[in-house]
Sulfatase N-terminal domain-containing protein (Aedes aegypti), 299 residues
Amino acid sequence: MVAPPAPHAPYTAATRHEDTFADVNAPRTKNYNLPCGPLEKHWLLTMPPSPLPADILASIDIIYRKRWQSLMAVDEMVESIVATLEKRNMLTDTYIIYTSDNGYHMGQFGLPYDKRQPYETDIRVPLLMTGPKIPPKTLVSAPVVLIDIAPTVLELAGLDIPAEVDGASVLSKLSHTAPIEERQILVEYWGEGTVETHNPECPWQKKDKLMLCTLDAGCHCQDAWNNTYNCVRHMANDLDMVYCQFKDNEHFIEAYDLSNDMYQIENVAYDLLPSIRAKYDLAITNLTECSGPTCRRIY
C-alpha cells in the first residue's frame, strides 16, 4: 500500500509544480456559495458569514490550485510504480486500486473548505482499478463503498471472505452488463468539537464546542460536537436517496433525491411520508448494528 498525504493540508506542491494550473479555480457548481435557510440544512451550515465574502472565495481558489499542484507528484508516483512493475514483467499479474478516504467541499453551501459533511462533495471518492481480470474501460454504475475493497482483495487472492465482513467483493460488478442491485449504505460521522478545540480569535465560546474555526475562513466553523450524523444511502436502478439524522438538540433530518437533485439543494426530509421516514429511521438503526451480508439489504 502507498498512501501519499497529498492533497492534504498544507497543500504543499513539489517546487517543479508550483506554477501549474495558474488559471484553475474551484468549480462554481449550483450549490457553490449557496446560503442555507434554517430548515434547508443543519445549523452548522447557517453560521455566518453566509454567503462567503469575495476574499474568502479567492482563498478557496488558491487552495484548490494548491491541491491540484500537490497531486502532480502523486501522478508521477503512480506512473513510476506502473513503469517499475512493467520493467519487472509484473504488470500483467498485478492489480492496482486507486482511491481516496474522503472528498472535500470548497465553497459549496457557503462552507469554506473541509471534509466533514454528509454531502457528495465530502463522501464521494474516485475508485479506479486495473488488473488481469478487469475488462478495459469498464464503467461500474452499481454502488461501491470503501468497505468493499477488503473482500475484493481477498477474492482476487483466492481467499475466503469472513462471514462478518460488511462489504462485498466488486468483482461480479466488473462488466458492462452487471445489474445494479438494491443496496442501503451507512454514512456516519462523529463531530470532534470539544472545549479544547476552541479558537479565541473567533467570537464563539468554549461551551459551544466548535472546531476548525479560523480567521482565514471568516470564523465559519467546519465542525462541532453535534456535527454528528448517521445517514442511509438507498440506491437501486431507479432510486438514489440519502436520508440523514443529526444528533443535535433539534433532531434535525435531511434527505435528498439525488436522481433529480445531484447538488443536494432541496431538503425533502420533511416532505416524506411518515411511513418512508420510519423505514429510513429503521434502516439507520439496523445499519449501525448489523454485521456481514445483512448490512447490504437492511429491510
